[in-house]
Amino acid sequence: MIKNFKNLRPFASLKSAKSFEFSRPLETLTFRELSERGISRTWLKLRGLDSKAKTAMNKFASDNSVFVPIVPWIEENMYDWSKVMIYGGEYDYTNAPKLILQQYQKDILTKVLTADEKTGLFPYTTVIWSQPKKHGKTQIAACVGAWYGVNVEAPNVIMTMASNQEQSAGLIFNSMVPSVYALGGKVPFSTHVTPEIRLPNGTIIKAIPNNYAGQAGGNYGLTLWSELWTFKSERDRRLWEETPPVPTRKNSIRWVETYAGFEDESDLLQDLYKRIFVTTSSNATHEKAVPVPELEHITTTVNGETIPSCWHIPDEQIFMFWDHEIRAPWITEQYIKSEKASNRASTFTRLWKNLWQSSVGTYLEPAQYDACVTEDGEEWGPMILAGDASQRNDTTAFRRCTPR
Questions:
Q1: What residues does 378 pair with on adjacent strands?
Q2: Residue 392 and residue 404: Cα distance in Å, rounded?
Q3: 203 and which of 44, 86, 87, 156 could share a cystine (Cβ 3.0–4.6 Å)?
């Protein structure tokens, strides 16, 4: 909802005063309540308004709505989508709590999605949010999408992106559907219809297929990218290149949620990562990449060194939150031990420490190799020798081993 509905009232030339018989002040009503009382599909399209009044109202919404603070809006309007039930085409929110953000989430969202009061511009056009598995990255992206759709520069276009249509419609998009419906959005109730949400303010939220040609030239205000580490093909790269932030809109943002990928496969994500860090295996950063001053209290430990989690390149309008900590209260130490025991070392490191890995499997885990190392003074027995010769741009390997 926009900052102040009272400023819109002078535009209302109503044929019937009955339309304003509200039990609460207009500015406190949800989109659905407004719609039920005569405000239809166009942004605050009150009965009896002439085109000039509607134009003025739309301009007011565009100029002022961006200043609605995102954190209190999320905690007031966004449900835990996994707890919302659906019966006969209606959502049941009885057992669905509203989301409660952790402090680090509040701090980051406030920083990256607070517009300059003079210009109305957000500080970044590319935002990368990367954490270990099961930290609510998808839910955060859904909250950003819903808030942006309801509050920012309506009518707008928001797109959820993934490496395939099913994933695009099933991750971020589905996470926001119940909450957007409660705000008056027209949402799909069947998997056989186009995954598209229409808000009362004219904004459209849609999950798109991986069709780079079909998305060229769009006028979208926000694109939400899920698990960018899965974008590996030339088709994936072209989708990214054909959907940059739109310069003709006042604000247009790319939002990426992901965890670490594979060094020899996830080229798109790796290119973004290396805009901040020099390599995927060290903490060294480029000179132009600096910690975000307001977020330096959010730190992470990697390779034995504690470093800031939040970096940016102000001139290039890119922000990166790359974290290696287990911060979610629902992820217990026992759960992590279970995951470590049931996964390969490289898989556990990528998913739960958010560190880059090679896609080539490990023949011997470090503990297995250490157990085979010959101690000083140990007598040698019969050996098996193996060699791997090289010709150019390669490494020669020679190994010997003996039964123990």
A1: none
A2: 36
A3: 156
DSSP assignment letter at 81: G
- What is the reported pTM? 0.76
CA atoms within 13 A on the CB side of 165: 10
Burial of 175 (0-12, 13-18, 19+ CB in 10 A): buried
- Collect all residues with Cβ–Cβ distance below 8 Å to 342 and sequence separation of at least 6: none
CA distance 26 to 9: 10
Say how far apart CA 206 and CA 43 lie, in whole Å: 18
Q: Is 186 left (phi over 0), alpha (psi -120 to 50) or beta?
A: beta
Q: Where in the chain is the domain with CATH 3.40.50.300?
A: 68-322
* Average pLDDT score over residue span 321-342: 96
Average predicted confidence (pLDDT) for the chain: 81
Cis ω before 69 (30° cut-off from 0): no
Average pLDDT over residues 25-46: 48
Is residue 84 within 8 A of residue 96, CB to CB? The reply is: yes
**Contact assessment for residue 236 and residue 70, using Cβ atoms and an 8 Å cutoff:** no
- The fold for domain 68-322 equals Rossmann fold (3.40.50)
Better pLDDT: 155 or 30: 155
